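User: Quick sanity check before I run a bigger batch. Here is a single chain. Can you write out its predicted 3D structure?
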Amino acid sequence: MIEIPKELLEAVVAHVRREAPNEACGWLAGERNEIRRVYPVPNVAEDPRVEFRMDPEIQLSTMREIRESGLELTGTYHSHPRTSAVPSARDGGLAAYPEAVHLIISLATPEPEVRCYRVEEPFDTVELTVRLPVQLHPGGNCCRLAEKSGEFPG
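Assistant: Done. Predicted structure follows.
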């Protein structure tokens, strides 16, 4: 299980929406299974509409900043602007940190879909706990951000 505060998940979703129709990517840092900070990293892929590749210089400087802040690499995130939040074969090949979680944010539907995985064969779904308010999506470890702040939609 991994936990992310609502405001950090909202920051990730805002980042991927700003970058659409291109894929967006970044690092997640924290302690144990709790994400404490997010670090957007520029996507320098040759075709950013269908793939991501983190800017190597920013990637390294961010890793150094995470280490110096006393946090650890908790995971990565990236978006699927036109497809579901399910890892592609390419996603698995890019996962250099098997102990890290991988958040995938889909913008294929009006409300963002967020799923969390560990890259193993086959992909292993990780329970993602998000502090309220969120609306849980039936049938999986997925959540959709609630449209309004306040009470959990019922």
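The two ends are 24 Å apart (CA to CA).

User: Great, the batch can go ahead then.
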